[in-house]
């Protein structure tokens, strides 16, 4: 128990952040034969904070943030719901189409679409994107510059012919991605300003499974997710033996991340020269020097580790099972 040290962070000067890029993202996932997973799920995110949820069971588009409930104009929720009911049907057809293109008759399959836009509130620059994936691989994606669909997969070429020759579709899609999307994004940012344009500092702790495992510097509870974390020694960033994790969403609208370092080749007396640095835009760096007494270890407190791992796994399940395939896709894309 003595090994556990909760780290209380001093409140460092918080400055309001200057120019920022805001984003609006939609993820649609259609699946067939995936046990205990709805056959159609839609989520929308503003600045990586979830704003809406819809699935084939509820057949209702629901707000995921309190401030979203304030959007009531022109039957907003009814229209979103109706649109998603139509999309759900289209996804059912899309999965069947994709299956036939790959000569598949049954089995587990997933069709996904990811689209949205980013808006730089200083330069006013807007960039849109739209792409589909099938069974975890790119299927078709829109080249926004030329406004044409391209197919990384032979089986999707027919789809690109069809869409590229549908002038009405190409026009309305371009209009959405370059104009309408950014319009909504600005509206959402306005409604959610007090919650979206805030700064939450994380609590940072050192975790280690056993005395020979890598030491993990774990930061949780921060907002926004434009954060960096790294290990430093003698004022310089360390890369050797360092594994950076992804920034993951917590269920309460904050984020967590961790960066691991393997110190097994470092002499014990050298280890306290290492520091974990957490950087969040507009806030002074949060620096923690590695001290043995600060490390929460599995050996001294098994439960804490299990709780943390379980919490991380839950977060992964809740959101990442919807978007994970896309993150993987984006990473593996050259
Ligand atoms: C939604 O999809 C799941 C998985 O396919 C299915 O079990 C469930 O019955 C569907 N819900 C409705 C209301 O159709
Ligand atoms: C919703 O709007 C009301 C009236 O403008 C405002 O007082 C309230 O704070 C808003 N709620 C949220 C969660 O932003
Ligand atoms: C599907 O079957 C057709 C006809 O047998 C064949 O020409 C085609 O190459 C097959 N496609 C795939 C992806 O196996």
Automatic annotation (TrEMBL):
<dbReference type="InterPro" id="IPR007110">
    <property type="entry name" value="Ig-like_dom"/>
</dbReference>
<dbReference type="GO" id="GO:0009897">
    <property type="term" value="C:external side of plasma membrane"/>
</dbReference>
<feature type="transmembrane region" description="Helical">
    <location>
        <begin position="304"/>
        <end position="328"/>
    </location>
</feature>
<dbReference type="GO" id="GO:0006955">
    <property type="term" value="P:immune response"/>
</dbReference>
<protein>
    <submittedName>
        <fullName>H-2 class I histocompatibility antigen, Q9 alpha chain-like</fullName>
    </submittedName>
</protein>
<dbReference type="InterPro" id="IPR011162">
    <property type="entry name" value="MHC_I/II-like_Ag-recog"/>
</dbReference>
<comment type="similarity">
    <text>Belongs to the MHC class I family.</text>
</comment>
<dbReference type="Pfam" id="PF07654">
    <property type="entry name" value="C1-set"/>
</dbReference>
<dbReference type="InterPro" id="IPR037055">
    <property type="entry name" value="MHC_I-like_Ag-recog_sf"/>
</dbReference>
<dbReference type="InterPro" id="IPR011161">
    <property type="entry name" value="MHC_I-like_Ag-recog"/>
</dbReference>
<dbReference type="GO" id="GO:0005615">
    <property type="term" value="C:extracellular space"/>
</dbReference>
<dbReference type="InterPro" id="IPR036179">
    <property type="entry name" value="Ig-like_dom_sf"/>
</dbReference>
<keyword id="KW-0472">Membrane</keyword>
<feature type="signal peptide">
    <location>
        <begin position="1"/>
        <end position="19"/>
    </location>
</feature>
<keyword id="KW-0732">Signal</keyword>
<dbReference type="InterPro" id="IPR050208">
    <property type="entry name" value="MHC_class-I_related"/>
</dbReference>
<dbReference type="InterPro" id="IPR003597">
    <property type="entry name" value="Ig_C1-set"/>
</dbReference>
<keyword id="KW-0325">Glycoprotein</keyword>
<keyword id="KW-0812">Transmembrane</keyword>
<keyword id="KW-1133">Transmembrane helix</keyword>
<dbReference type="Pfam" id="PF00129">
    <property type="entry name" value="MHC_I"/>
</dbReference>
<dbReference type="InterPro" id="IPR001039">
    <property type="entry name" value="MHC_I_a_a1/a2"/>
</dbReference>
<dbReference type="InterPro" id="IPR013783">
    <property type="entry name" value="Ig-like_fold"/>
</dbReference>
<feature type="domain" description="Ig-like">
    <location>
        <begin position="202"/>
        <end position="276"/>
    </location>
</feature>
């Amino acid at each position: 128990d003595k090994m556990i040290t909760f780290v209380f962070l001093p409140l460092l000067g918080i400055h309001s952040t200057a120019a920022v890029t805001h984003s609006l993202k939609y993820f649609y996932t259609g699946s067939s034969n995936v046990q205990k997973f709805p056959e159609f799920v839609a989520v929308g995110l503003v600045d990586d904070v979830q704003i809406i949820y819809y699935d084939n069971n509820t057949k209702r588009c629901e707000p995921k943030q309190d401030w979203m409930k304030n959007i009531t104009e022109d039957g907003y929720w009814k229209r979103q719901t109706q649109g998603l009911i139509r999309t759900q049907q289209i996804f059912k057809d899309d999965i069947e189409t994709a299956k036939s293109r790959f000569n598949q008759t049954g089995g587990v399959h997933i069709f996904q679409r990811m689209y949205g836009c980013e808006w730089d509130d200083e330069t006013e620059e807007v960039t849109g994107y739209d792409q589909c994936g099938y069974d975890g691989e790119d299927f078709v994606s829109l080249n926004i510059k030329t406004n044409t669909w391209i197919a990384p997969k032979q089986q999707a070429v027919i789809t690109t012919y069809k869409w590229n020759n549908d002038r009405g579709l190409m026009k309305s899609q371009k209009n959405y991605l370059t104009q309408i999307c950014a319009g909504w994004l600005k509206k959402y940012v306005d409604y959610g300003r007090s919650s979206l344009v805030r700064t939450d500092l994380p609590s940072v702790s050192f975790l280690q499974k056993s005395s020979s495992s890598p030491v993990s510097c774990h930061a949780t509870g921060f907002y926004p997710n434009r954060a960096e974390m790294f290990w430093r020694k003698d004022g310089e960033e360390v890369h050797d033996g360092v594994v950076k994790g992804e920034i993951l969403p917590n269920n309460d609208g904050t984020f967590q991340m961790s960066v691991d370092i393997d110190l097994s080749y470092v002499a014990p007396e050298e280890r306290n020269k290492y520091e974990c640095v957490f950087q969040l835009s507009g806030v002074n760096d949060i620096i923690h020097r590695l001290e043995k007494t600060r490390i929460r270890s599995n050996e001294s407190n098994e439960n804490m580790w299990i709780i943390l791992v379980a919490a991380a796994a839950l977060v992964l399940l809740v959101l990442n099972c919807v978007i994970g395939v896309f993150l993987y896709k984006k990473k593996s894309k050259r």
